[in-house]
């Protein structure tokens, strides 16, 4: 497969803003691989289309900065000053290199054309080079690609190296293309995707006609996308829908997914980042669990041992993000994990089992139930204990009064509310389902991403003063729902200035447009209908509650969530 053929289709994908057209062009790519290439090529093309060399579950990055890229292309005869000028003019290093490469007449014609395989494998090698002289070696490999690349190939090569393709391709659109081309229901592909987190692998196996391949099943040390809950307007409504349900304390902490194989333990965050190194005491506690192979999920809470109550969420973040002095931090901030689900044990996957059964397996592992109705006294005594691994407090009931009492008790011990779980439901990775609800006292706060920052005035003149915040649709397109400036301390503003300056896409004078990387949680007085914003809703009086460095732009709330909360709010009025 020639890299040039792929680039030409990438160009078409880039040119259209219509999702269906993007899907259809991607289908052409699949077709082309089928005709001219190998299944492995499709795998590589999928990664490349979303600006990656490694699968999505794999946190490694190429880690090549603009500087090295510029050095590489200047070493093949592109003038540096001209290049810098062009980057300024186009706002895109890919386009800049493309335009200047077209002025170098002789080059690419003299060489064998680049293949997808070569580009991919060379970049993978670049990512793996370490140690002395590594920069030089990387430079040499990258230059060798640019030397042979035609102008348009240069554009996508440069963007791929910086891991930002700018063609508007994302996993849902690729899944759509695969579903249409191979005539497999999208839900089925979505489920496999949530388990593998690897769009390349999925597409490769599809092309081989091997969807039952073991590689596509749950696997230790490859984190799976978590099952998510919906907000319910009331306990009554959830019970009406579910009949009997399991209520659990909704802990105020951070979700963890723990994988164990003998003495090897890894812990992943809600975003599936590997946070093992920051949490040594949890790793040690998990090692002691008397099961060989395990994947479990739980909420990691920072416990104040004096009061038995949770400490602020920021303290968890301090633990999760810590890279040095971990021992010291460990003494300062004590953690406890409340396990609430099990996905895998000793070679057996539990994701298709009913929740009731999964819970029973989990209870057998820890050796007790934590049933609030019968074990409340012990539970309360142990709030201040040194326990590191625990199991979530539960109440199985169909009685609203009893459920409400449990909810109030959960709030009284400092947590957020309750989860309400359907006893018969399987584990549905990666989706927000009606078999698991959350119920909290206030209108749900929203996780939104910052897309623009306005330069501050007066007291805030050295910083940015207010921020455009967005929710997303199912395809990942972003929609503003307001501007937020309150709820930020001076040190927050200081930090935001630093972070925002690193991700500016365009300077618009009074404000700057930024890459959607900073996720914040905002509270608000209410959601209003609005003509001002294309999505039709605006947040009234939003205020920042906290930074969600544990979330990315794919984890923010959706327009659908905004609509749902709007309806709940109308119901309450
Ligand atoms: P939030 O921002 O409210 O934490 P979220 O978007 O991270 O929500 P949701 O699925 O909406 O995720 O809410 C469920 C979250 O609540 C889980 O991701 C988990 O982190 C947390 N949680 C706390 N206690 C429990 C529990 N007992 N069972 C399941 N999830 C729990």
From TrEMBL:
Keywords from the UniProt entry: ATP-binding, Cell cycle, Cell division, DNA damage, DNA recombination, DNA repair, DNA replication, Ligase, Magnesium, Metal-binding, Nucleotide-binding
Active site per UniProt: 250 (n6-amp-lysine intermediate)
Coiled coil segments of this chain: none
Membrane spanning residue stretches: none
Cofactor or coenzyme needed: Mg(2+)
Record has Ligase as a keyword: yes
Biological processes, Gene Ontology terms: cell division; DNA biosynthetic process; DNA recombination; DNA repair; lagging strand elongation
A GO MF label: DNA binding
Xref: Pfam families: DNA_ligase_A_C (PF04679), DNA_ligase_A_M (PF01068), DNA_ligase_A_N (PF04675)
EC assignment: 6.5.1.1
The ATP-dependent DNA ligase family profile domain, residue ranges: 328-473
Reaction it catalyzes: ATP + (deoxyribonucleotide)n-3'-hydroxyl + 5'-phospho-(deoxyribonucleotide)m = (deoxyribonucleotide)n+m + AMP + diphosphate
Binding site for ATP: 248, 255, 270, 299, 340, 432, 438
Top-level taxon in the UniProt lineage: Archaea
Enzyme class: ligase
Protein role: DNA ligase that seals nicks in double-stranded DNA during DNA replication, DNA recombination and DNA repair.
Protein name (Swiss-Prot/TrEMBL): DNA ligase
Naturally occurring in which organism (per UniProt): Methanocaldococcus bathoardescens
